[in-house]
């Protein structure tokens, strides 16, 4: 699944609804549906019954029977009030049992029986909660007598309501038509059909879907046949290859289907690729088809295994909670990711499309062909897909230089990883709540960063060999991560398993300190020592026992290659080289560790910046700022360091500078230092702004788009950090042009100009933006307006803008764009946070269940003790009722307390330095 950090919309479900619906069962011997009220399980004679196992502590279903195959028949009319289905689930019964336990949530079972050894075993069903569950998710099937060991078939029929939280089976109205879509990962197939909803069960599915005539059904596999009977059409699909339940998918509606007309040059053996959209939208799909074809080809080549399924449909879904979902052969995406106007799409939108498509396609091998057998190894799916999206987009469009974006992403997740409340990449997952929490930056970005570090350590060839062997040996199976690690051990001859375990099984980020000594005879050596990196005020327990196996590489002045050593857990290590270098860079490749140097070490590195490549420069800046936050480097030292990078040619380095200044502005700049800070920021970016101008030059259209993105970063810093009046005025001129005619300003410029133009604007502009959002012809234009609606400095206007999100003007799955923008700025953050508290109940109606789980992240918007206490009191009881919200809240409150510590330690010094600066 693709989810991006700072999301404000996970998924889940309303407990009341579930309880209301989990209310009936039927007991029949001959198959006629006859709903009857829930009754307690029958008390049959001891000889014929076995005891019902309680819910398991580890969150798995009791091992009474194993599914072998599903035959599913669903009746789906998106315009009706709900859906119906029947299933035949072939089972292998381990021991004689008078119980079966599987998953179902919010479904009304209307009929159930088991067939075994020529006999019929009537059944009753009831629901119960799993361990740690916040609502009933286990379906208990009570048989009137024990089924013998061996093959059996569970026949079951049910009815269900459309899910209201964009998970399970849900419907969406687009224009005047209804459509139905599914989203099953992680634990929501059980909302659509009774099943053994665990990734370890990987079996074939035979699916047929009955719809009103005139609608189309699509599913994981090709359509095998269809038949019409009265007003209904039944679509039969070919049997799937073995799949876990979470990868099953289908969609029903009056769709447009567009085929890839011509494979792009240089591609070969592609599956048939189609784009599925709601009515009238497929004209915006050419880029998505081309991107999908190019990346599928690139992936098959890198991996050395053809695309594993018979066909590939990409589906543009108008309302979607996550970003995209890798269902085997039927990948679903937020519509705005796939549907782009080739004439106007922004650089960011094109790149984002490539990254998300690459991620979901990578899953067709990592996750789909070979599946992590339980959610504690989710990183195997998601870390790999994240690592692969960087790698494969870099192969497909090297000019995008996304390999450097990967470096920024790696440094970004280190802060989350250093929190005392952070998860380990690999840790027990018991409940649905735990599974929700596992979809976070630790699983995705840290997982990817560890894989990148392993690849650097053992080399690309060995890494690729190990991955290939792993995929070939385990194709169509569900396995644990140790299979991948042992494949990498074998391919490299190194102990990847132990190295990886030191990073995967504990939260935290190591910091390596480096002391260089020059020896007589023109040699140098450096002693390396590791300890956990901790921010000031960290409550993480320093038990002294935590250590990592770290492949450390130190780049010395004048050398092309780094000197490397494997730091074994706990033991000091040495690296050495020739000469006596004037500087060393302790992590020029940006592997997954931080480093410390004295201030003079950072100064020397900054002076030698032209001898460092882009990852080395990003890592230098990120580590220096980390030293400030650990209390080992004065904040004012950053003011001396940053100007070295004013003219840096790399967009990512400039973004890093902007990011550090943004964090300083938020946390450390006191009111009396604000004017001086603005001046300091303007000195960094004004010249760059003049060179770049506002509008993309003609030649940029054919290039990498990097200059366009650099312009965005520079204008953002000038507008929001330097608060430069002329920048804001110029933005307003462009915004007026855009409001009059959105096609008169290119999408990249509009994205920054229309937003900055809101800063000093009033209620009239808000009204214009609401109108522009309603009238927008493309999703990109709509998002420009939605974000700019949150761009007002005036608290009253911003509050009115926030109020509009509760109405029809903003869809539930668009709330993330609005809140994302409101939380991004120093001035709007506190207003937005207070508004969330004031409107909590209304917000939860719009974002029910865990769809609104990320709202608790607003608690991080605090930097004093009283603010933190207030947030804690408000959000704690609320998070307790939302699946997957408790850890994000703990992380947010901890971040807020770290902000308070850093401010107390460093704000006065930085402000003084700003005031003294000439
Ligand atoms: Zn994913």
Automatic annotation (TrEMBL):
Site entry (Transition state stabilizer), positions: 444
Location of the region described as Disordered in the Swiss-Prot/TrEMBL record: 33-61
Keywords: Aminopeptidase, Hydrolase, Metal-binding, Metalloprotease, Protease, Signal, Zinc
Biased composition (Pro residues): 34-43
Domain annotation Aminopeptidase N-like N-terminal: ranges: 67-247
Residue sites binding Zn(2+) per the record: 359, 363, 382
GO BP annotation list: peptide catabolic process; proteolysis
Pfam families, A to Z: ERAP1_C (PF11838), Peptidase_M1 (PF01433), Peptidase_M1_N (PF17900)
PANTHER family per record: PROTEASE M1 ZINC METALLOPROTEASE (PTHR11533), PUROMYCIN-SENSITIVE AMINOPEPTIDASE-RELATED (PTHR11533:SF174)
Protein name as it appears in the record: Aminopeptidase
Lineage of source species: Bacteria, Pseudomonadati, Myxococcota, Polyangia, Polyangiales
């Amino acid at each position: 699944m693709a989810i991006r950090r700072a999301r404000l919309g996970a998924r889940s479900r309303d407990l009341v609804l579930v309880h209301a619906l989990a209310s009936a069962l039927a007991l029949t011997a001959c198959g006629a549906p006859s709903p009857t009220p829930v009754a307690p399980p029958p008390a049959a004679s001891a000889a014929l019954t076995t005891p019902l196992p309680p819910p398991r502590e580890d969150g798995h279903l009791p091992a009474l029977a194993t599914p072998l195959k599903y035959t599913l028949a669903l009746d789906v009319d998106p315009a009706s009030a709900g859906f119906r289905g029947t299933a035949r689930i072939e089972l292998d019964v381990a021991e004689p049992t008078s119980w079966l336990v599987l998953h179902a949530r919010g479904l009304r079972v209307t009929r159930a029986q088991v067939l075994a050894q020529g006999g019929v075993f009537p059944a009753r069903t009831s629901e119960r909660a799993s361990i740690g569950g916040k609502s009933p998710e286990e379906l208990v099937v009570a048989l009137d007598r024990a089924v013998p060991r061996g093959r059996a078939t569970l026949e079951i029929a049910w009815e269900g309501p459309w899910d209201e939280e964009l998970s399970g089976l849900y419907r969406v109205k687009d224009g005047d038509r209804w459509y139905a879509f599914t989203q099953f990962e992680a634990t929501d197939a059980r909302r659509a059909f009774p099943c053994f909803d665990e990734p370890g069960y990987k079996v074939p599915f035979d699916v047929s879907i009955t719809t009103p005539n005139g609608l189309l059904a699509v599913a994981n596999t090709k359509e095998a046949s269809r038949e019409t009977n009265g007003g209904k059409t039944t679509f039969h699909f070919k049997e799937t290859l073995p799949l876990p339940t979470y990868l099953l998918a289908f969609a029903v509606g009056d769709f447009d289907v567009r085929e890839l007309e011509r494979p792009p040059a240089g591609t070969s053996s592609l599956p048939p690729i189609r784009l599925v959209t709601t009515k009238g939208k497929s004209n915006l799909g050419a880029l998505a088809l081309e991107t999908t074809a190019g990346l599928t080809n690139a992936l098959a080549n890198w991996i050395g295994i053809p695309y594993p399924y018979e066909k590939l449909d990409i589906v543009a879904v108008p309302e979607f909670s996550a970003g995209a979902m890798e269902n085997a052969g039927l990948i679903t995406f937020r519509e705005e990711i796939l549907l782009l106007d080739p004439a106007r799409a922004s650089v960011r939108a094109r790149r984002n499309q490539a990254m998300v498509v690459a991620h979901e396609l990578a899953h067709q091998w990592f996750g789909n062909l070979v599946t992590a057998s339980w959610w504690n190894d989710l990183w195997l799916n998601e870390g790999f897909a994240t690592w692969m999206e960087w790698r494969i987009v870099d192969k497909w469009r090297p000019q995008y230089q996304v390999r450097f974006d990967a470096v920024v992403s790696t440094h970004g997740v280190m802060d989350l990883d250093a929190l005392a409340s952070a998860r380990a990449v690999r840790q027990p997952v018991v409940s649905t709540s735990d599974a929700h929490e596992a979809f976070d930056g630790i699983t995705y970005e840290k997982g990817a960063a560890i894989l990148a570090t392993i690849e650097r350590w053992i080399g690309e060839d060995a890494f690729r060999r190990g991955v290939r062997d792993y995929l070939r040996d385990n194709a169509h199976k569900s396995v644990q991560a140790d299979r991948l690690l042992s494949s990498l051990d074998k391919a490299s001859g190194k102990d990847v398993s132990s190295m990886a375990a030191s990073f995967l099984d504990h939260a935290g980020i190591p910091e390596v300190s480096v002391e260089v000594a020059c020896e007589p005879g023109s040699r140098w050596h450096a002693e390396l020592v590791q300890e956990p990196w901790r921010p000031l005020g960290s409550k993480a327990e320093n038990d002294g026992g935590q250590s990592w196996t770290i492949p450390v590489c130190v780049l010395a002045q004048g050398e092309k290659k780094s000197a490397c050593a494997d730091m074994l857990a706990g033991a000091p290590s040495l690296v050495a080289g020739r000469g006596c270098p004037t500087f060393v860079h302790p992590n020029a490749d940006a592997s997954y560790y931080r480093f410390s140097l004295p201030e003079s070490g950072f100064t020397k590195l900054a002076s030698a910046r032209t001898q460092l490549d882009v990852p080395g420069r990003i890592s230098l800046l990120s580590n220096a700022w980390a030293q400030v936050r650990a209390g080992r480097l004065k904040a004012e030292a950053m003011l001396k360091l940053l100007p070295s990078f004013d003219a840096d040619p790399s967009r990512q380095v400039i973004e890093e500078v902007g990011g550090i200044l943004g964090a300083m502005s938020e946390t450390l700049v006191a009111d009396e230092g604000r004017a001086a800070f603005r001046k300091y920021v303007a000195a960094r970016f004004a010249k760059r702004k003049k060179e770049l101008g506002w509008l993309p030059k003609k030649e940029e259209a054919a290039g990498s788009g990097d200059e366009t993105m650099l312009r965005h970063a520079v204008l953002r810093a000038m507008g929001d950090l330097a608060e430069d009046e002329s920048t804001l005025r110029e933005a307003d001129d462009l915004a007026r042009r855009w409001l009059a005619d959105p096609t008169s300003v290119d999408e990249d410029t509009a994205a920054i100009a229309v937003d900055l133009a809101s800063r000093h604007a009033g209620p009239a502009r808000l009204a214009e933006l609401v109108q522009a959002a309603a009238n927008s012809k493309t999703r990109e234009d709509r998002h420009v307006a939605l974000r700019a609606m949150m761009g007002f400095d005036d608290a009253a206007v911003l509050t009115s803008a926030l109020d509009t999100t509760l109405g029809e003007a903003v869809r539930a799955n668009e709330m993330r764009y609005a809140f994302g923008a409101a939380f991004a700025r120093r001035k709007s953050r506190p207003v937005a946070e207070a508004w969330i508290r004031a409107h909590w109940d209304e917000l939860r109606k719009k974002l029910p269940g865990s769809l609104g789980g990320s709202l608790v992240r607003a608690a991080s918007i605090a930097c004093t003790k009283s603010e933190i206490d207030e947030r804690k009191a408000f959000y704690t009881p609320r998070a307790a009722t939302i699946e997957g919200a408790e850890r994000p809240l703990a992380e947010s409150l901890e971040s807020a307390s770290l902000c308070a510590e850093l401010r107390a330690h460093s704000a006065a010094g930085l402000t003084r330095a700003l005031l003294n600066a000439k």
